[in-house]
């Protein structure tokens, strides 16, 4: 799996995007982080609208991949 890089972060905001594509991109970000946390900022129980914030530290050490 290719390493998630800092320059890949802006691509997360590309819209519109499918939920499957977004899941893959966010999954790669989390897998390549040394720590990660999620916080539900807003949840509207009537409409189903939500806002989730991810916070973490991307693993910038390329020695594990040999690059």
Structural notes for this entry:
By secondary structure, the chain is of the alpha+beta class. It has one domain. The chain has one helix spanning 19-31, and strands at 33-43, 50-58. The longest helix has 13 residues, at 19-31. The relative contact order is 0.22.
> What strand line-up does the widest sheet have?
1-2
Q: Please provide the count of β strands.
A: 2
What is the average per-residue confidence, as pLDDT, rounded to a whole number? Answer: 88
> In percent terms, what proportion of residues is strand?
25-35%
Low-confidence stretches: none
Rg of Cα set: 14 Å
The class by helix and strand makeup works out as alpha+beta
- Characterize the largest beta sheet: strand count, sense, and whether it forms a barrel: 2 strands, antiparallel
| Number of helices in the DSSP assignment | 1
Fraction of helical residues: 10-25%
Please tell me the total number of domains: 1
Question: Could you give the order of the helices and strands?
Answer: HEE
Question: What gap, in angstroms, lies between the N and C termini?
Answer: 13 Å
What general outline do the C-alpha atoms trace?
Answer: globular
